[in-house]
Specification:
Length: 172
């Protein structure tokens, strides 16, 4: 019982610290919340969650050894790094056209759910986290059984939703 409790609390704390780190998903949450409202964070987190749940199921099914390969890490890091680089270049190129406005266009032209998936996938820290800390935690969770895996998966989402609701309360 203590092992399950420790797993849930520690995965919550680690996820809370990760959710506060600046990155593409955090930036989109901040930039889109005024435009799309309070629902932005939960939808982005849901997309992120579907990606993580899929990865978790793949790891439990045997993908873990593939993710630990040096070549896989390098490929994911390069693709994620290139994505972040082009995102940064795009931001700098748009600087001359930026202006502060009090009214936001409420119509969205992209899916927040898919953004949650693709921004997480493109972030090199996400794959690094799963190849190191996440895999280590998952191995511990698998020793406990299905309840350990569920606890490991749910702990971070309580942390992420805590951050989302903090952002929501500040934006209202």
């Amino acid at each position: 019982m203590f092992k399950i409790l420790f797993l849930g609390i520690s995965s919550f704390v680690i996820a809370l610290s990760g959710a506060m780190m600046p990155g593409p998903l955090f930036a989109v949450t901040i930039s889109e919340t005024p435009r799309r409202g309070w629902i932005t964070g939960p939808i982005l987190v849901a997309g992120h969650g579907v990606l993580e749940c899929s990865l978790l199921l793949l790891i439990v099914s045997g993908l873990g050894s593939f993710l630990q390969m040096k070549e896989t890490f390098i490929f994911i890091a390069l693709v994620g790094g290139l994505f972040l680089f082009f995102m940064g270049v795009s931001m700098f190129r748009s600087l001359p056209k930026l202006s502060l406005q009090n009214e936001f266009n409420r119509q969205a032209n992209s899916s927040l759910f898919l953004s949650g998936i693709f921004l997480s996938l493109a972030n090199p820290y996400w794959s690094f986290w799963w190849a190191t800390i996440g895999l280590g935690y998952l191995v511990q969770a698998m020793e406990i059984g299905i309840i350990g895996i569920v606890t490991f998966f749910m702990g971070p989402y309580f942390g992420r939703f805590s951050m989302v609701f903090c952002c929501i309360s500040r934006s209202i």
